[in-house]
């Protein structure tokens, strides 16, 4: 299985550390997929670490629930994925590269990138659009059943 990343320059050292075969073709990264993905979201640090077969591969800034809202904690499996989704609850707000994990809660891209690294969402886990696209492709390639999303305080 191969994964074609959206961005031309990704953390090559991190991908190589997974033991995956890394090939470069016309400036874009292609990696042979391993078997398991774990996305660890730290609410206190506002970061999401992605492990591929137990090896740290990506570390991204996120925004979780702002004041008055809650991001659920626990271990979840993706329940559905949408390349583009519009929130029915929050004024049709766009949610690109949505990976839903608990009812209406999802990991998804945001256009409010200046707010990444601090709480700002209505409870979802927001990522930079490039990071969300990469994460979406990882989950799509490995399969939701081989993916865990772990959210901790």
CATH superfamily: L,D-transpeptidase catalytic domain-like
Radius of gyration from CA coordinates: 15 Å
- By CATH, the architecture is named Beta Barrel
H-E order: EHEEEEEEEEEEHE
Compute the number of structural domains. 1
Global morphology: globular
CATH topology descriptor: L,D-transpeptidase catalytic domain-like
CATH class: Mainly Beta
Share of β-strand residues:
35-45%
Summarize the biggest pleated sheet: 5 strands, mixed
**What low-confidence regions span 5 or more consecutive residues with pLDDT below 50?**
8-14, 16-34
Provide tags for this entry.
153 residues, mainly beta, L,D-transpeptidase catalytic domain-like, 5-stranded mixed β-sheet, 4-stranded mixed β-sheet, 2 helices, 12 strands, globular
Would you mind describing this structure in some detail?
The protein has two helices and twelve strands; from the N terminus they run βαββββββββββαβ. The chain has 153 residues and is mainly beta. The protein has one domain (35-152): L,D-transpeptidase catalytic domain-like (Beta Barrel).
Record the SSE blueprint.
Blueprint: E1 2-4, H1 12-17, E2 22-25, E3 28-32, E4 37-42, E5 47-52, E6 55-61, E7 74-76, E8 80-86, E9 94-102, E10 105-109, E11 125-127, H2 129-142, E12 147-152
Parallel strand pairs: 4-12, 10-11
Antiparallel strand pairs: 1-3, 2-3, 4-5, 5-6, 7-12, 8-9, 9-10
